[in-house]
Amino acid sequence: MCRWFSKKPKVEDPVIEQPVPMVDKPSPQPNISVNAITISLPGQTPFLSVELVGRLQWPEPDQVQVWAPSIPDTNSMDPTYDSGHHVVYLRPLSDANRDYLAGELRVGDIAVYDNGLARITHRVSRIGADDKGRWFRFKGDNRNTEDIYLVRDYHIMAIAVAIIY
Predict the structure, then answer these.
(1) Are 150 and 109 within 8 A, CB to CB?
(2) SS (H, E, C) the chain
(3) What is the C-alpha to C-alpha distance for residues 66 and 90, in angstroms, rounded to an integer?
(4) Which of 5, 78, 105, 149 is the most exposed place for a label (fewest CB within 10 A)?
């Protein structure tokens, strides 16, 4: 186990279920490419199309993967999203692209990092640097305190680009 994770984790503050947006219709399945997201129900004209622009466009489209994992019911990101929602991420396929992704993260972005024990999806709350390089602090929207981990570039796994309710 690396030194970064050698401290015993503190008990997280209690998480209370918060209301989140819900849709009482069939869940649409997104058609996703690297620089655009189109959402439609089967056999229908798309009702939402989002083009990823600016810093969300990837310089090497063949080096990124669109990733939409299932959302666990932890309530840590309520009311932004909850289990049953689709969060769409861009995930780099190489270390060089992971460094690029980390360099594009800003305070307020939602990202996934690996803390050595689990993958955590929270919002970037602070960014800084020390003699070891850039670091990030994350916090769940429904939490009172930041995560205990000092996250480095190489821990970043993906950045959220869309939430489908």
Answers:
(1) no
(2) CCHHHCCCCCCCCCCCCCCCCCCCCCCCEEEEECCEEEEECCCCCCCEEEECCHHHCCCCHHHEEEECCCCCCCCCCCCCCCCCCEEEEEEECCHHHHHHHHHHCCCCCEEEEECCCCEEEEEEEEEEEECCEEEEEEECCCCCCCCCCCEEHHHEEEEEEEEEC
(3) 5
(4) 5
**pLDDT attached to residue 139:** 97
Q: What is the pLDDT of residue 24?
A: 47
Q: What is the pLDDT of residue 20?
A: 57
**pLDDT beneath 70: ranges in the chain:** 1-63
Picking from 29, 51, 38, 16, the residue whose alpha carbon sits closest to that of residue 143 is 16
d(CA 51, CA 147): 32
Return the pLDDT at 3: 32
pTM: 0.71
Q: In the chain, what are the domains? A: 26-164 (2.10.109.10)
Terminal C-alpha separation, the chain: 37
| pLDDT for position 8 | 37
